[in-house]
Specification:
Length: 384
């Protein structure tokens, strides 16, 4: 039976109404991480952690586009360009290392796309400016962790501290904090030795450190490269305290270092000592949740680096519902609103600490997020 004119009018009106309603669009999250190269010990678990991430947030489908940047700044920039210009992602996560991440800052600002960094250096988000306002960092700043460990070093009676670190943004960032804090703590920094992450030997640097007869040695490195100077020190008979950074918080550090890394002390995140946290700790739930999901997805226990990926998306989970009120995914309006919403991530407990991001602080952690950790009997344990 033919429809009446009134029925046809009603169908037409309904069609126009449906056309006027906003269409649901997937939220695209681009990822560039160091799955190969010197940063692989960080990037590989970060890429595996993608399987633990939510596929829907606030009723919107989430699509992840992960790429390997081979620990190379140029490749990371190439990945970012593809993800932002071709895939038109709403947010970019990456990269694993500070020097690999630095070129992404300009690109994120130019394309007005929020960048969630999984690298450590404070220089990625400080000082705040028109470019860095697009960058957010889930790894606690090196200045926070440096202050915690340097106070511990001073309290342990150390007066002369030797330094050896990687010759990139991570190592230099830590060195700058160490020399800034040392005078007020009554500590003399006796050396400034550096090495490349892919060096096979640090014999010369270690001999120079030992020649200054330090009370203790501070190593600023991350992942497996952090083992090299500690092993070299022990092989040459050094028996004093050795302090490291939160960049060593992976089982690979213990497995590669063996007895040589026993007793190493550093300031790190709650995740690393999750088993030692009391049941009523507000950090217990997020760490337990992630560790369970990662084990289910991979069959392995996760290192802290994998948690950087998970925490980045935890922050996005809190921000996306607010951003959706201002625009649809895939639009500049949504990306701008997402950036603004991330600046309101106040009081979110993560594997990496208590996030309290503000417009002036895109890291957002304080001393409550720094835990003193020691390698004891082949495990990471709290020093208390």
């Amino acid at each position: 039976m033919a429809l009446s004119k009134h029925a046809l009018s009603a169908v037409g009106a309904a069609t126009l109404l449906l056309a006027a309603l906003p269409a649901h669009a997937e939220i695209k999250i681009g990822i560039t991480a160091s799955g190969t190269g010197p940063g692989a010990v960080l990037g590989q678990p970060q890429l595996r952690a993608v399987d633990t991430l939510p596929t829907e947030i606030a009723g919107e489908k989430i699509t992840y586009i992960p790429l390997d940047d081979a620990s190379d700044p140029s490749k990371a920039a190439q990945n970012a360009r593809k993800l932002m210009l071709e895939d038109r992602v709403d947010v970019l996560i990456g990269s694993s290392l500070t020097p690999v991440t630095l070129p992404l800052i300009d690109m994120a600002a130019e394309n007005e796309t929020p960048l969630m960094s999984m690298a450590a250096a404070a220089a990625l988000v400080e000082p705040m400016d028109d470019k860095r306002k697009w960058v957010f960092k889930v790894v606690p700043n090196d200045d926070l962790m440096a202050e915690a460990i340097m106070k511990y070093i001073a309290d342990s009676g150390v007066k002369r501290l030797g330094y050896i670190g990687v010759s990139d943004g991570y190592g230099e960032g830590y060195y700058n904090e160490v020399v800034r804090l040392a005078p007020e703590l009554g500590i003399d920094i006796t050396t400034h030795e550096v090495y490349a992450r892919n060096d096979a030997s640090v014999t010369g640097q270690v001999l120079k450190v030992l020649a200054t007869k330090p009370d203790a040695v501070f190593i600023a490195s991350a992942g497996s490269p952090a083992v090299l100077p500690q092993k070299a020190l022990r092989e040459r008979g050094y028996k004093g305290p050795i302090f490291q950074t939160h960049g060593v918080a992976s089982q690979a550090f213990i497995d590669l270092g063996g007895d040589a890394v026993e007793g190493a002390i550093f300031a790190g995140e709650a995740f690393t000592v999750a088993d030692d946290l009391p049941a009523d700790s507000p950090f217990k739930a997020p760490t337990t949740e992630f560790i369970t999901k990662y084990k289910e997805a991979t069959g392995e226990a996760p290192p802290i680096f994998a948690a950087h990926m998970y925490d980045s998306v935890r922050l996005l989970e809190a921000a996306i519902p607010k951003a959706l009120e201002a625009g649809q995914p895939g639009t500049p309006e949504f990306r701008r609103a997402l950036r603004s919403a991330l600046e309101q991530s106040d009081g979110v407990y993560l594997n990496n600490g208590l996030s309290q991001i503000t417009p002036d602080d895109h890291n957002g952690y304080d001393a409550r997020s720094a835990f003193l950790i020691v390698v004891k009997d082949g495990q990471f344990r709290t020093t208390e």
